Amino acid sequence: MKEIVSAKWLHKNLNDPNLVLLDASIASSNDGKYDGAANHTIPNSRPFDLKGVFLDTSSPFPNTVPDEKHFEHECRKLGIKQTSRIIVFDSFGIYSSPRVWWLFHSMGHTNIAVLDGGLPIWIKMGLPTVTKSAKNYVMGDFKSQSNKQLIVKFQEIEQNIKEQKFLVVDARSTGRFQGTAKEPRAHLQSGQIPNSVNIPYQEVLENDTFKDKKALKEIFENKCGTNQELVFSCGSGLTACIVMLASEIGFKKSKRIYDGSWTEWAELKNLKIPV
User: Fold this and answer.
1) HEC profile for 88-129?
2) Distance (Å, whole) CA 235 – CA 242
3) Could you read off the pLDDT of 150-204 as tens digits, one per residue?
4) 78 near 94, Cβ under 8 Å?
5) Among candidates 164, 180, 224, 182, which has minimal Cα distance to 199?
6) Which of 81, 150, 197, 236 would bridge 140 by S-S if both were Cys, CB 3.0 to 4.6 A apart?
7) Distance CA 44, CA 49 (A)
8) CA atoms of 46 and 24, how far apart (whole Å)
9) Minimal CA–CA distance to 244: which of 86, 97, 93, 78?
10) Whole-angstrom Cα distance, residue 196 to residue 133?
């Protein structure tokens, strides 16, 4: 399956019995976004709760990858099967949905795509929405097969500063990357992992959708060159997945995410604001 699908394609295939549509909307963000469609969703969609369910609740860091068995069980509760063709979207256009795309890849399920433009473009096209409501689904038979290669740990990032086997691409704002703007987590300094480069996630988007392949290729070639393997980072592992998916679409296949991202790096490196 391609990385992204259009609202036109989804509308045509919405009643496919093998299609599972996941709403990965989050209520708010640290980027000043407002979820204007918080109570509405696309028909036949199922809620995929990134902030409350599909994460490691025991981790001291936000948004980290959940346990394989936990992920499997929660997917089954949503009625997801081994054969399911998954489409994921969010109410900001492109924001939290790429994280879900990556999570499924990290758990061995690659038959998934992101709705390009998400709920905003669906509404803009005059397509129907429904009020969100809780539902029970027939238990699925989804099976997780973790691909740990896609999950980069702190020690690998630290070691790579010397070895430079891959290039870290940071999706945070330029100000946070350069240390001139504050972090959302007020006790942490802003700044950058040594030898990393900055592609703020907004740079790969236009009008709530991904830029075309030519534009994406140019962005990555200018910032990253063409030879190195890429690893993606941000504040907590969420918007890193936007830039990662943009690379998949227009540059090179590189799905590796530094899951702890700047929050873990700054905490473990004791880059804290003195009190």
Assistant:
1) EECCCCCCCHHHHHHHHHHCCCCCEEEECCHHHHHHHCCCCC
2) 13
3) 999 999 999 999 999 999 999 999 999 999 999 999 899 999 999 999 999 999 9
4) no
5) 224
6) 81
7) 16
8) 9
9) 97
10) 43
The yes-or-no answer on residue 234 being catalytic is yes
DSSP alpha helix (H) spans, the chain:
7-13, 68-77, 97-106, 118-124, 154-163, 174-178, 213-224, 240-250, 261-268
State residue 34's pLDDT score: 46
CB contact at 8 A, 251 and 221 = yes
pLDDT under 70: residue ranges of the chain:
28-38
Whether this prediction's pTM lies above 0.90 is answered by yes
Q: What is the mean pLDDT of the chain?
A: 93
CB 170 within 8 A of CB 179: no
Neighbours of 43 (CB within 10 A): 12
Up-side HSE of residue 142: CA atoms within 13 Å toward CB? 30
What is residue 17's predicted lDDT score, i.e. its pLDDT?
A: 95
Pairing verdict, β 151-152 and 130-131: unpaired
Distance (Å, whole) CA 75 – CA 256: 22
